[in-house]
Amino acid sequence: MYLNLTSPLILYFKRVIRNIQAETLSSRLQGCSIVALLAFFCHASYDYPFEIPVYSFTIAIFAGFLLTHGEHYLKGLHKPAFLKASKCMLILPLLAIVLILSLYFSAGTQYREKISFNNQAKTNLPNLVKNLAYNPSSWYNWYFISQRLLQQNEPEARQLAEFALKQAAIHHPNQSKLWKQLAFLRFQNFEFEKGSIAYRRYFLIQNEAQRKSNEEASLFMSQDEFDYLSPLEMPMQERTKNIFARYE
């Protein structure tokens, strides 16, 4: 698959570089397209945008702009007839809007509610697992998977539940209740060190007033650690996705 994509990509980049060097591209269109593509690929480094058709089409459009010769933009005004004909291009976005609306309303509420929080709360375990193929970063999908596994009350299921709950916490990192439940589940699985790490994050997510009124914290940390963490502000680097490797 990747070999089949290599040749078209090489040809594409050669053509773009040749157009840039020959200054046949509109400088504004060129700059706008490069900045947009860089933003798209930065987003793609931590999310799943290529799986969204509208997102993929947008990337293809900006990539195509880098192949568009812009020299005629610099030669003055077009003929009046050409300007009038260019207005016909407005039909395309209007047609796209009409098609999107028709698909949206024809799908009905069943599809739109299928991935909602309330619907996931009532979904069984096999269907929740299937939903991961469509929305792998849904925190509440992972959360309800963990809850269904815990209902089985088996040691192997508890290990899988811990993994699912950890994924939920990673995808919703500032939800303190997820980290607290993950900590207690690890304690029940006799993973005391990992449980303490998860509880420490739960404690840090709370505000200072909540921390000081948290009486149960003395069960999981020393008094010195409690006094040190209580006024501590959560560092910004603790809110990035790369930091979560330490919570595994």
Q: Could you describe the 3D structure shown?
A:
- The chain is an all-alpha fold and 248 residues long.
- It is built from 13 helices and no strands.
- α9 runs antiparallel to α10.
- The protein is elongated, with a radius of gyration of 26 Å.
- The mean pLDDT is 76.
Give a brief rundown of this model.
By secondary structure, the chain is mainly alpha-helical. The chain folds into two domains: 2-109, no CATH class; 120-247, Tetratricopeptide repeat domain (Serine Threonine Protein Phosphatase 5, Tetratricopeptide repeat, Alpha Horseshoe).
Topology:
Layout: H1 2-21, H2 27-44, H3 53-65, H4 80-86, H5 91-114, H6 117-121, H7 125-131, H8 139-152, H9 155-171, H10 176-188, H11 192-205, H12 208-212, H13 223-229
Helix pairs in contact: 2-3, 7-8, 8-9, 9-10, 10-11
For the sheet with most strands, the description reads: none
Number of strands: 0
Gyration radius, rounded: 26 Å
Strand proportion: under 5%
Distance between the termini: 33 Å
- Mean pLDDT, as a whole number? 76
By CATH reckoning, the class of the largest domain would read Mainly Alpha
Number of helices: 13
H-E order: HHHHHHHHHHHHH
Count of domains: 2
For the structure shown, list the relevant keywords:
single chain; 248 residues; mainly alpha; Serine Threonine Protein Phosphatase 5, Tetratricopeptide repeat; 2 domains; 13 helices
